[in-house]
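Slide 14.
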Amino acid sequence: MILLAIEAAAKVAGACVLKVEDGKEDVLGDVFTDGALTHSQTLMPMVDTVLKKAGLTVKDMDYLALTAGPGSFTGLRIGAATVKGLSLSSARIQEDGTYSGGKKIVPVGTLESLCYGLSLETPDETALLVGTMDARRSQVYAAVYQVSQGHLKEILKPEAMPPKELADFLLSREETCIFAGDAADLYEEFFRQSLGSRYRKAPDEAKQLSALSTARLAVRMLEENPAAAVDGWKLELTYLRRPQAERERSARVRRDILLRPMKKEDIPSILAIEEENIGNGWSEESLAREMENDKAHYLVADLKGEVIGYAGYWQVLDEGHIMNISVRKDYRTLGLGRLLMDEMIHSGTGLGILYWTLEVRKSNEAAIHLYESIGFSSAGVRPGYYANPKEDALILWLSKEV
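Slide 15: predicted structure.
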């Protein structure tokens, strides 16, 4: 596998060509800049440089990769435009004017790339790896990971927050914290005073983003899931910046949410959610039958006595068949879907479920993104599965087998 990776999410930009064959890697070209010039001036010359060093062209690449956020709005857009252009340069124009055959792109989380590079330098499974970036407005982009059997385990998902909020989260833990990224420099004294002896700074060779780390992580992602690569037109960036009011509301709601088993008196609220979201979902009779079904397990998100979401699955031997998950429209984007999914899988695992499956409309990109972030991957298509409107369903599976 030969891959061209681009780093443009922060002040330092870079490009790298990495070849991996039979488990051995060969860095064919790797360059970076210190941010003295804008990425629009430096990125393509760096791509040309690494390709010339490698003696290759874009057509020789198996994949392209880039850090897709969070990060500088301008830098992310320049990086995305660059890889999309490179992808299309190897595509063919069809008779109908559409493109086919362009290089697929692996979007890599910026903070995950940062911490992946750090994990290769300090593979300490007892420590927390804290990736940070300056988000301005007295905030940082931050994510926390831990090395587990050679993989990064997400402890705190990427989010924009005040430095104190990050410090408070880390103080709720007990591990040593190794900081990387430009915000680690900017707020070093604050984090050092907050965490005391638990604070450590990443070594110089691993404290900043690099195209090489992005390339290495992209290869790892592809080895674990070839579907990690997407067509150029499907590439999406992650900006993360949310209004403060929305973040505060999300925190309040999640703090007050009670996840509990569904009761018969919840049925009217669930029917209202179904009607609001899809218009022709469960009937009152079918929900009542589900509650009498020994195979069925349903839970609701209860906010101070008000049902604002629900989810359910059937257990068939060691398989969990997810029947539905739905959240009231005025409580979406607050992470409740992930909360419900995590609770279902956690409880089902305790009942002996090793494999999970569900169907989802091919056009429901938000739901697909949620499921893929949990670890589900596509295993096929059910043609014409959905009605009103008629649409194919993707069949997704997740294995929790150890």
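Speaker note: The chain has twelve helices and 19 strands.
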